[in-house]
Fold each of these.
Amino acid sequence: MNAQTRPRGSLVEPRRVGLWVERTADERLAAMASSVGATKSALMQWLIEQAEVDPAGRPVGWDSDHPRAEELPIDSP
């Protein structure tokens, strides 16, 4: 399936974003984009727009999946 590209000039203030991701993440993004007939860019923008955030603006679940290694548990000696 060919990805449906965005119409030329349809992006508002477009910016090129250089990101490095692991191969498996890129493969998953490509598969997801292909399954809906979109480009990886269009899917990434949609995912960002749909991401639920907490009152501090952090993605919901980020703190539980990314504990701060430098902090010790409260009950540590």
Note: The chain has a mean pLDDT of 85.
Amino acid sequence: MHRWIFAINVAIFFVLAASLVFFFTQKQGFLNSITQANKQSPAASPSPTGVQKAATPTAQVITSKDTQSAIIKYTNSTDRQFLEPFMAKNVSVILYATDCCQPMSPKDAIKQIDYINKGMPFTFDQKKEEIVSLKAKNPQFSNTFIGISQTGEQAIIYAIGAGTNLIESVQMSVSWKLY
């Protein structure tokens, strides 16, 4: 009987010891990450009076031009994951003349853009005759950023939010002539 009690106490001791080791290693990792973050944040330079001012983080403001440049660059690339920061939380994706799709995450929307891969490269010259015609015939496209294949008939139409400058919807078609 005493051997069982002794064995149980030894087991409890090892479980507690392992828990303490785990806790302290996790705490040490947490402390290291805080220390690294403090080392990486830029220290403010001393002011003429010798008093240091705290560094103020500046938010990256995405402009419509930033989003359009990213669209041109990454639509004509297979590295489309770089479009993700330029997308809203939920992106409406439409594959014209299909039942696909619904609002989805930027990651899933990027996968759907493969639908028009055969049309690469795309031109996004909004003064191109075909794009001007599309916008004239389809008032819903008046404030969109349209790309047309230079080798085929594929089209991709991006709606960029006026307030956010983020991609809110992507519509794709095997032919711009279907509109």
Note: The radius of gyration is 28 Å.
